[in-house]
Amino acid sequence: MIKNFIKEHHLEYYEEANLKRYNTYRIETICKYLVFPKTKEELRDLLKYLNNSKERYIVLGNGSNVIFKNVYYDGVIIILTKLNKIIIDDDIIEVDAGYSLQKLALETCSLGLEGLEFACGIPGHIGASIAMNAGAYNSSLSEVVESVEVINSNYEFVTMTKEELEFDYRNSLFKREKEYIIVSAIIKLNRGNKAEILEKISKRRVKRIETQPLDMPSAGSVFRNPPGMPAAGALIEQCGLKGYNIGGAEVSNKHANFIVNAGGATGKDIVKLINKVKKEVKEEFNVDLILEQIIID
Ligand SMILES: Cc1cc2nc3c(=O)[nH]c(=O)nc-3n(C[C@H](O)[C@H](O)[C@H](O)COP(=O)(O)OP(=O)(O)OC[C@H]3O[C@@H](n4cnc5c(N)ncnc54)[C@H](O)[C@@H]3O)c2cc1C
User: Fold this and answer.
1) Which of 36, 44, 64, 120 to mutate to test the pocket of ligand 1 (most atoms within 8 A of CB)?
2) Residue that finishes a domain, picked among 21, 46, 79
């Protein structure tokens, strides 16, 4: 039984835990167990046990790209914030999966290192953000990741080079191979001009504050921008959907490609609103919007 395993292995865990703090939509979902592995070996043993015993589980980063659809998750949520070591050796960084991407970006920019300026406004963790190939301003993590250490489907620790990670727009091998979990990464940056780097990130920060609803819970952009068309936000706005609300889920008045939790939204409200937006945009422009966020059933 899962509880015996957790106790025998002295894992840090919470039973019937509320995930509100662990997803940026601040949805209130209860999970059966919330576990924080302290080492990569603990994580490996836990994954092996969960797969062998056919328990449901998800490894989460900062929960800034997910929607918990139901009020109960009958499984184990694994969070890697205890795997958070970092070594900065000149322009080479070795960093664990649970480290904050935003923090790493700000730290390296402050050291005059170039390459992660785009990531200063992305509130993810390193492992998940590499899996999502997070990016902005035409840059993405695939440009700076040299290699990652993963737990593979045989529960071995292996190093995979960036060529093996099938990076694409907001996509990588990890979206297909759900059993592969990133435990750490090697990132290579370049020496740059510190003053210029700091000015760049400061300007972008102001722009984000001006254009995005950062004061409300969300999970960033909801849909991809359709190729060869106006941006998803513009299409949604032209459908007159800004401010449209289902439950507490609302199309942001500031940026129509953001859905915000305006108070008490459930995952179901958010999913209903997503479907409404997709339907309206399809009817008005004959465009099938593609969801960027991940719905967890
Ligand atoms: C205000 C705001 C602004 C945002 N701006 C951007 C932006 O500019 N660009 C952008 O790309 N995104 C943006 N996002 C979305 C989000 O922050 C990114 O996608 C981020 O990289 C997700 O990281 P996370 O740790 O929160 O992932 P989570 O949401 O926790 O997880 C995402 C996926 O990764 C998987 N995963 C988690 N850990 C691992 C691991 N160790 N190994 C393998 N798979 C793993 C999870 O199972 C899940 O499927 C924004 C979000 C917000 C709230």
Assistant:
1) 64
2) 79
φ and ψ at residue 266, rounded to 5 degrees: -100, 170
- Which atom of ligand 1 is least distant from the CA of 58? 47
Residue numbers annotated as active site: 170, 221, 292
Is this model's pTM higher than 0.90 or not?
yes
Task: For residues 275 and 273, give the distance between their C-alpha atoms in angstroms, rounded to a whole number.
Answer: 5
- How much is the pLDDT for 1? 84
Could you tell me if 118 and 185 lie in one domain? Answer: yes
| Run of H or E including 158 | strand 157-161
Q: How far apart are the first and last CA of the chain?
A: 23
Asked if residue 38 belongs to a domain, the reply is yes
Q: Using one digit for the tens of pLDDT, what is the confidence trace for 98-157?
A: 999 999 999 999 999 999 999 999 999 999 999 999 999 999 999 999 999 999 999 999
**What SS3 class is residue 124?**
coil
Which of 79, 100, 121 corresponds to the end of one domain?
Answer: 79
Give the domain CATH number at 292: 3.90.78.10
In this prediction, residue 40 carries a pLDDT of 98
| Helix or strand run (H / E) with residue 130 | helix 126-132
Pull the structure tokens for residue 134.
Answer: 């997070």
